[in-house]
UniProtKB/TrEMBL annotation:
PROSITE patterns: ATP_GRASP (PS50975). This is ATP-grasp domain-containing protein. It comes from the Bacteria. GO terms for biological process: SOS response. One of its GO terms (molecular function) is ATP binding. Residues 67-314 form the ATP-grasp domain. GO terms for cellular component: cytoplasm.
Length: 316
Protein backbone atom coordinates (compact mmCIF):
# COMPACT_ATOMS: atom_id res chain seq x y z
CA UNK A 1 0.00 0.00 0.00
CA UNK A 2 1.49 3.33 -1.10
CA UNK A 3 0.77 6.29 1.17
CA UNK A 4 0.11 9.31 -1.02
CA UNK A 5 0.34 13.05 -0.62
CA UNK A 6 -0.71 15.39 -3.42
CA UNK A 7 2.73 15.45 -5.02
CA UNK A 8 3.06 11.68 -4.88
CA UNK A 9 -0.42 11.19 -6.33
CA UNK A 10 0.42 13.33 -9.37
CA UNK A 11 3.76 11.62 -9.91
CA UNK A 12 2.26 8.12 -9.64
CA UNK A 13 -0.60 9.03 -11.97
CA UNK A 14 1.78 10.18 -14.68
CA UNK A 15 4.13 7.26 -14.03
CA UNK A 16 1.29 4.83 -14.66
CA UNK A 17 0.46 6.57 -17.97
CA UNK A 18 4.10 6.10 -18.98
CA UNK A 19 4.04 2.41 -18.16
CA UNK A 20 6.20 2.66 -15.03
CA UNK A 21 5.79 0.26 -12.13
CA UNK A 22 5.62 1.68 -8.61
CA UNK A 23 6.60 -0.15 -5.43
CA UNK A 24 7.01 1.06 -1.86
CA UNK A 25 10.35 -0.36 -0.78
CA UNK A 26 10.65 1.38 2.62
CA UNK A 27 7.20 2.17 4.02
CA UNK A 28 8.38 4.03 7.13
CA UNK A 29 9.84 6.79 4.95
CA UNK A 30 7.31 6.32 2.13
CA UNK A 31 10.19 5.60 -0.24
CA UNK A 32 8.84 4.55 -3.62
CA UNK A 33 10.76 2.87 -6.43
CA UNK A 34 9.69 3.49 -10.02
CA UNK A 35 10.91 1.03 -12.62
CA UNK A 36 10.77 0.48 -16.34
CA UNK A 37 12.95 -2.27 -17.71
CA UNK A 38 16.36 -2.00 -16.12
CA UNK A 39 15.99 1.66 -15.20
CA UNK A 40 15.06 2.49 -11.61
CA UNK A 41 14.35 5.78 -9.83
CA UNK A 42 13.27 6.77 -6.34
CA UNK A 43 10.74 9.30 -5.14
CA UNK A 44 9.98 10.19 -1.54
CA UNK A 45 6.93 11.90 -0.12
CA UNK A 46 7.39 15.65 0.28
CA UNK A 47 10.85 15.56 -1.24
CA UNK A 48 12.22 16.25 -4.68
CA UNK A 49 12.26 13.55 -7.31
CA UNK A 50 15.66 11.92 -7.25
CA UNK A 51 17.07 11.79 -10.73
CA UNK A 52 19.05 8.64 -10.10
CA UNK A 53 18.51 5.27 -8.51
CA UNK A 54 19.68 6.21 -5.04
CA UNK A 55 18.32 9.58 -3.97
CA UNK A 56 21.68 11.22 -3.46
CA UNK A 57 20.42 14.17 -1.45
CA UNK A 58 17.93 12.40 0.79
CA UNK A 59 19.36 9.06 1.87
CA UNK A 60 22.33 10.30 3.95
CA UNK A 61 20.01 12.68 5.82
CA UNK A 62 18.35 9.71 7.48
CA UNK A 63 20.56 7.10 9.12
CA UNK A 64 17.88 4.43 8.77
CA UNK A 65 17.75 4.89 4.99
CA UNK A 66 21.52 4.43 4.74
CA UNK A 67 21.29 1.23 6.80
CA UNK A 68 18.34 0.03 4.73
CA UNK A 69 20.25 0.31 1.47
CA UNK A 70 23.47 -1.05 2.97
CA UNK A 71 21.65 -4.14 4.20
CA UNK A 72 20.08 -4.67 0.78
CA UNK A 73 23.56 -4.55 -0.75
CA UNK A 74 25.37 -6.72 1.83
CA UNK A 75 27.38 -3.93 3.42
CA UNK A 76 28.14 -5.09 6.98
CA UNK A 77 26.46 -2.98 9.67
CA UNK A 78 25.79 -3.56 13.38
CA UNK A 79 22.55 -5.31 14.32
CA UNK A 80 20.07 -2.50 13.83
CA UNK A 81 16.42 -1.57 14.26
CA UNK A 82 14.64 1.74 13.60
CA UNK A 83 11.67 2.91 15.66
CA UNK A 84 9.26 5.78 15.05
CA UNK A 85 7.48 5.64 18.41
CA UNK A 86 8.25 4.78 22.03
CA UNK A 87 6.21 1.51 21.99
CA UNK A 88 7.96 0.42 18.80
CA UNK A 89 11.38 1.26 20.27
CA UNK A 90 10.64 -0.46 23.60
CA UNK A 91 9.67 -3.64 21.78
CA UNK A 92 12.39 -3.46 19.13
CA UNK A 93 15.26 -2.98 21.56
CA UNK A 94 14.67 -6.52 22.82
CA UNK A 95 16.10 -7.73 19.50
CA UNK A 96 19.41 -5.89 20.00
CA UNK A 97 22.08 -7.33 22.30
CA UNK A 98 23.53 -5.21 25.10
CA UNK A 99 25.58 -3.12 25.36
CA UNK A 100 23.74 -1.08 22.76
CA UNK A 101 23.72 2.30 21.03
CA UNK A 102 20.78 4.70 20.64
CA UNK A 103 20.88 7.64 18.25
CA UNK A 104 18.57 10.11 16.62
CA UNK A 105 17.89 8.86 13.09
CA UNK A 106 18.54 12.34 11.73
CA UNK A 107 21.02 14.04 14.08
CA UNK A 108 24.66 14.59 13.20
CA UNK A 109 27.95 15.44 14.92
CA UNK A 110 27.26 13.04 17.81
CA UNK A 111 24.13 14.88 18.95
CA UNK A 112 21.50 12.70 20.65
CA UNK A 113 23.91 9.77 20.77
CA UNK A 114 24.24 7.27 23.61
CA UNK A 115 26.79 4.45 23.46
CA UNK A 116 27.60 1.38 25.53
CA UNK A 117 24.15 1.28 27.14
CA UNK A 118 24.43 -1.59 29.62
CA UNK A 119 20.87 -2.82 30.09
CA UNK A 120 17.19 -2.56 29.22
CA UNK A 121 16.30 -0.25 32.10
CA UNK A 122 18.85 2.38 31.04
CA UNK A 123 17.82 2.06 27.39
CA UNK A 124 14.11 2.52 28.17
CA UNK A 125 14.92 5.61 30.26
CA UNK A 126 16.80 7.16 27.32
CA UNK A 127 14.03 6.30 24.87
CA UNK A 128 11.35 7.81 27.11
CA UNK A 129 13.29 11.05 27.33
CA UNK A 130 13.83 11.17 23.57
CA UNK A 131 10.25 10.49 22.51
CA UNK A 132 8.45 12.45 25.22
CA UNK A 133 10.79 15.37 25.89
CA UNK A 134 12.16 16.21 22.44
CA UNK A 135 11.00 16.69 18.86
CA UNK A 136 12.74 13.53 17.69
CA UNK A 137 11.03 11.69 14.84
CA UNK A 138 12.77 8.32 14.93
CA UNK A 139 15.63 6.50 16.65
CA UNK A 140 18.15 3.96 15.48
CA UNK A 141 19.08 1.26 18.01
CA UNK A 142 22.21 -0.82 17.38
CA UNK A 143 24.57 -3.20 19.06
CA UNK A 144 27.69 -1.51 20.44
CA UNK A 145 30.81 -2.40 18.44
CA UNK A 146 34.20 -2.40 20.15
CA UNK A 147 36.93 -1.72 17.60
CA UNK A 148 39.09 1.07 16.19
CA UNK A 149 37.20 3.91 14.49
CA UNK A 150 38.15 5.27 11.09
CA UNK A 151 36.85 8.06 8.85
CA UNK A 152 37.40 7.23 5.19
CA UNK A 153 36.96 10.03 2.66
CA UNK A 154 35.76 8.78 -0.71
CA UNK A 155 35.59 10.73 -3.97
CA UNK A 156 33.99 8.83 -6.83
CA UNK A 157 36.19 5.72 -7.16
CA UNK A 158 39.08 7.01 -5.05
CA UNK A 159 40.00 6.88 -1.40
CA UNK A 160 41.22 10.43 -0.79
CA UNK A 161 42.17 10.16 2.86
CA UNK A 162 41.86 8.04 5.98
CA UNK A 163 41.80 9.29 9.56
CA UNK A 164 41.82 7.14 12.65
CA UNK A 165 39.57 8.80 15.23
CA UNK A 166 40.76 8.35 18.80
CA UNK A 167 38.36 9.09 21.68
CA UNK A 168 39.45 11.90 24.03
CA UNK A 169 41.71 10.59 26.75
CA UNK A 170 44.09 11.76 29.45
CA UNK A 171 47.67 10.66 30.11
CA UNK A 172 48.65 10.68 33.77
CA UNK A 173 51.81 12.40 35.07
CA UNK A 174 51.72 11.10 38.64
CA UNK A 175 50.93 14.56 40.04
CA UNK A 176 47.71 15.94 38.56
CA UNK A 177 44.13 14.83 39.16
CA UNK A 178 41.89 13.75 36.30
CA UNK A 179 39.96 17.00 36.71
CA UNK A 180 43.19 19.00 36.39
CA UNK A 181 44.25 17.02 33.33
CA UNK A 182 40.87 17.75 31.72
CA UNK A 183 41.47 21.46 32.26
CA UNK A 184 44.92 21.12 30.65
CA UNK A 185 43.38 19.26 27.69
CA UNK A 186 40.81 22.04 27.29
CA UNK A 187 43.56 24.66 27.11
CA UNK A 188 45.64 22.56 24.70
CA UNK A 189 42.80 21.77 22.29
CA UNK A 190 40.67 24.89 22.80
CA UNK A 191 37.73 22.59 23.54
CA UNK A 192 35.10 22.65 26.23
CA UNK A 193 34.91 19.31 28.05
CA UNK A 194 31.92 18.85 30.34
CA UNK A 195 32.23 15.92 32.76
CA UNK A 196 28.63 14.70 32.49
CA UNK A 197 27.32 11.58 34.22
CA UNK A 198 28.26 9.38 31.28
CA UNK A 199 31.87 10.56 31.48
CA UNK A 200 31.95 10.09 35.25
CA UNK A 201 30.61 6.57 34.88
CA UNK A 202 33.23 5.75 32.23
CA UNK A 203 36.02 7.12 34.42
CA UNK A 204 34.70 5.05 37.35
CA UNK A 205 34.62 1.90 35.19
CA UNK A 206 38.35 2.40 34.61
CA UNK A 207 38.99 2.54 38.36
CA UNK A 208 39.31 6.29 38.82
CA UNK A 209 37.35 9.44 39.67
CA UNK A 210 37.73 13.10 38.72
CA UNK A 211 39.71 13.59 41.95
CA UNK A 212 42.11 10.71 41.28
CA UNK A 213 45.77 11.47 40.61
CA UNK A 214 46.62 9.40 37.53
CA UNK A 215 49.89 7.43 37.68
CA UNK A 216 52.54 8.51 35.18
CA UNK A 217 51.71 7.11 31.75
CA UNK A 218 48.23 5.97 32.77
CA UNK A 219 45.71 6.41 29.95
CA UNK A 220 42.16 7.37 30.93
CA UNK A 221 39.44 7.59 28.28
CA UNK A 222 36.76 10.29 28.62
CA UNK A 223 34.48 9.03 25.85
CA UNK A 224 33.85 5.66 24.27
CA UNK A 225 33.63 7.14 20.80
CA UNK A 226 35.49 9.82 18.90
CA UNK A 227 34.50 13.33 19.97
CA UNK A 228 36.81 15.80 18.26
CA UNK A 229 35.00 18.75 19.82
CA UNK A 230 35.91 17.42 23.27
CA UNK A 231 39.57 16.62 22.77
CA UNK A 232 39.51 13.56 20.52
CA UNK A 233 42.59 12.94 18.40
CA UNK A 234 42.96 12.60 14.63
CA UNK A 235 45.66 10.43 13.10
CA UNK A 236 46.00 10.46 9.33
CA UNK A 237 46.76 7.13 7.68
CA UNK A 238 47.95 6.72 4.10
CA UNK A 239 45.21 5.34 1.79
CA UNK A 240 47.83 2.85 0.60
CA UNK A 241 47.47 1.12 3.97
CA UNK A 242 43.84 0.20 3.26
CA UNK A 243 43.35 -3.47 2.41
CA UNK A 244 42.03 -3.91 -1.18
CA UNK A 245 38.93 -5.80 -0.03
CA UNK A 246 38.02 -3.13 2.51
CA UNK A 247 38.58 -0.50 -0.19
CA UNK A 248 36.07 -2.31 -2.42
CA UNK A 249 33.58 -2.37 0.44
CA UNK A 250 34.00 1.37 1.03
CA UNK A 251 33.51 2.29 -2.62
CA UNK A 252 30.44 0.05 -2.79
CA UNK A 253 29.00 1.58 0.40
CA UNK A 254 29.23 5.08 -1.08
CA UNK A 255 27.95 4.04 -4.50
CA UNK A 256 25.02 2.23 -2.89
CA UNK A 257 23.58 5.51 -1.59
CA UNK A 258 24.40 7.38 -4.78
CA UNK A 259 27.06 9.76 -3.54
CA UNK A 260 30.28 10.85 -5.21
CA UNK A 261 31.85 12.53 -2.18
CA UNK A 262 31.30 11.01 1.24
CA UNK A 263 32.86 10.42 4.62
CA UNK A 264 32.44 6.86 5.85
CA UNK A 265 32.71 5.97 9.52
CA UNK A 266 33.71 2.35 10.00
CA UNK A 267 34.77 0.22 12.94
CA UNK A 268 37.51 -2.34 12.33
CA UNK A 269 40.30 -4.07 14.18
CA UNK A 270 42.87 -3.37 11.45
CA UNK A 271 42.08 -1.74 8.10
CA UNK A 272 45.34 -3.03 6.63
CA UNK A 273 44.23 -6.64 7.02
CA UNK A 274 41.58 -8.67 5.21
CA UNK A 275 38.00 -8.14 6.42
CA UNK A 276 37.77 -11.92 6.78
CA UNK A 277 38.55 -12.99 10.30
CA UNK A 278 37.88 -9.58 11.87
CA UNK A 279 34.78 -7.68 12.84
CA UNK A 280 34.25 -4.74 10.51
CA UNK A 281 31.08 -2.66 10.54
CA UNK A 282 29.95 0.41 8.61
CA UNK A 283 28.55 2.89 11.11
CA UNK A 284 27.53 6.05 9.23
CA UNK A 285 27.91 7.99 6.01
CA UNK A 286 28.13 11.77 5.70
CA UNK A 287 27.34 13.47 2.40
CA UNK A 288 28.97 16.71 3.60
CA UNK A 289 32.08 15.40 5.32
CA UNK A 290 34.47 17.53 7.32
CA UNK A 291 37.71 17.95 5.42
CA UNK A 292 39.66 19.88 8.05
CA UNK A 293 40.39 16.69 9.96
CA UNK A 294 42.54 15.49 7.06
CA UNK A 295 44.28 18.86 6.62
CA UNK A 296 45.06 19.31 10.32
CA UNK A 297 45.68 15.92 11.95
CA UNK A 298 47.21 15.53 15.39
CA UNK A 299 49.42 12.77 14.00
CA UNK A 300 50.38 11.69 10.49
CA UNK A 301 50.92 13.64 7.30
CA UNK A 302 48.31 16.27 6.29
CA UNK A 303 46.28 15.39 3.20
CA UNK A 304 45.26 18.23 0.86
CA UNK A 305 41.83 16.83 0.08
CA UNK A 306 40.31 20.26 -0.65
CA UNK A 307 42.63 20.59 -3.65
CA UNK A 308 41.66 17.17 -4.97
CA UNK A 309 37.95 17.85 -4.58
CA UNK A 310 38.18 21.21 -6.36
CA UNK A 311 40.18 19.65 -9.19
CA UNK A 312 37.44 17.04 -9.55
CA UNK A 313 34.61 19.59 -9.55
CA UNK A 314 36.26 21.87 -12.11
CA UNK A 315 37.86 19.04 -14.10
CA UNK A 316 41.36 20.49 -13.65
Amino acid sequence: MIKKDKNTEIILKEAKKLGLKAKTIYPKRNLIELTKGSRKFLIQQNFRINLNRFGTRNIPLFKDLSYFFWQKNNIPIPKTITAFSFPEAKEGIKKIPFPSVIKDARASQSRNLWVNIPDLAKAVSILKDLFFNSSIEAVVIQEFIRAEEFRILVLKNRILAIAQLVPPCLIGNGQTTAKGLIEELERKTNCTITPDQGMKDLIKSQGFSLDSVLPAGQKLFLKEYSKISQGGQIQNISPDKLHPEIKKMCLKAVKTVGLELAGLDIMAENISESPKGQEIRFIEINGRPDIYIHHCPDKGEPANVAREILKYIFKL
